[in-house]
Amino acid sequence: MGKGKLLVRLLRRPKNFSFADALKIAEAFGFLVVRLNGSHHILKRSGIPELINLQDVGGQARPYQLRQLLELIERYDLTMGDSQ
Fold first, then answer.
1. pTM for this structure?
2. Beta-sheet strand order (sheet of 52-57)
3. Per-residue pLDDT, 82
4. CB–CB of 72/52 below 8 Å?
5. 84/40 Cα distance (integer angstroms)
6. Which fold has domain 3-75?
7. pLDDT given at position 12
8. Domain extents for the chain?
9. DSSP 1
10. What per-residue confidence (pLDDT) applies to 51?
11. Where are the alpha helices (H) located in the chain, listed in sequence order?
12. Closest-CA residue to 69 (of 47, 46, 44)
């Protein structure tokens, strides 16, 4: 599934969203994994002071963490393919 379609699906329903797809979306917006701590993947993007934590729980991403990612994307007006 393309990243654009994944984003649409995430916006409609953040529950039951696979961790691998969440990571693809975060990377499409320029976030990079800077640290792994167990099941927690810490992501950072140049120019944004906040870190994002995505947790792999049985192959699924936590809905509240996906909402946090979407809030950062909206707050900083990020677009897919942007990487600073």
1. 0.86
2. 32-37, 40-44, 52-57, 60-61
3. 65
4. yes
5. 23
6. Metal Transport, Frataxin; Chain A (3.30.920)
7. 79
8. 3-75
9. -
10. 96
11. 3-12, 19-28, 63-75
12. 44
